[in-house]
Specification:
- The longest helix has 16 residues.
- With 225 residues, this protein is an alpha/beta fold.
- Helix 1 packs across helix 7 and helix 7 packs across helix 8.
- Strands 3-2-1-4-5 form a 5-stranded parallel sheet, with helices on both faces.
- The protein is globular and about 50 Å long.
Amino acid sequence: MSDCAVVLVSGGLDSATVLAIARQQGFRAAALTFRYGQRHAVEIEAARRVAQAGGAVRHEIVDIDLRAFGGSALTSDTPVPKDRDDLSIANGIPVTYVPARNTIMLSFALAFAEVLGSGDIFVGVNAVDYSGYPDCRPDYIAAFEAMANLATKAGVEGRRLTIHAPLIRLSKAEIIRQGVGLGVDYGLTSSCYDPEPSGKPCGRCDSCHLRRKGFADAGLADPLG
């Protein structure tokens, strides 16, 4: 399946955009989502919607219980920070950082890609509006790609794997504009770290703040309100 790419789909705004980009580039998309014990589990249903609407040919939802370790407000009972301003969000690594999450997820994606015979993985990491997460930086993605090509049968045999991170240097507004241009329905997505049981976003966490600012800077209305 050399024309197939594994696309990490969380159900959020960024991953919905990345799925659309992969499809635009001519790849058939195998979506990969994780139920990892996150408190914002409504994103799993959002991921189902996004994968279906985005034309994924396959969608795997994998269970890994990171609550066993905790260490994050997303996988424990630690309160999710609310009502922080831009300066506070940009300063330091927040408690919503999930230890090694992207490394874990990319490792699963790497295994999935190798089984599919795919040389391409798409991930929606972003180093501009990245809230201090160390595993969203360009040097991290480059290092993981180098490791992947050393650690797999495909890589050793010369079938190079590429980690695509097309959003990594874009602002949230630029991501939204690109997604809208590709026909992404952001009304299907879920970005909130601490949503209500109904799925309604809290409107106060860092992720809600960055989403709201992104739509405002793009001059567009968020379909979630």
